[in-house]
Amino acid sequence: MSPESEAAESPPPTILVVDDQASTRHLIIAGLASYRGAKIVEATNGDEALRLVDEQRPDVILCDIQMQPVDGITFLKIIRGYKDERVSRIPVIVITGVATREAVGAARLAGASGILVKPISIPVLIARLDTALRKNPA
Predict the structure, then answer these.
(1) CA 86 to chain centroid
(2) Is 69 among the domain residues?
(3) Domain region containing 90
């Protein structure tokens, strides 16, 4: 089955975008405006995102690393620690402007499904989302 026909048969995904920089959130949201009819939900930090995960049950999460009061790595560890597998298995693609070996290693160790380095390429982001949704269909 092609990704296009698979997308046509799947319900529109809910994507949670978590970044403290409004410009990054807006870039991602604009780039995903017509992506599979997705519902895009946004949060400015990990604390707000945790509340939205409980309320919205997103299919995929895009999350920055450097945020306060709850940073992306802590947020990811909390998500992966949920007893409810519908939450703990949500794909989380980490977005970072800090592509150091330590930051990437910490994200992978915390359970990141993928890592993207800023500035974000929308075609690469869409390819990562397609892969995440195929592995964990809505």
Answers:
(1) 15
(2) yes
(3) 11-135
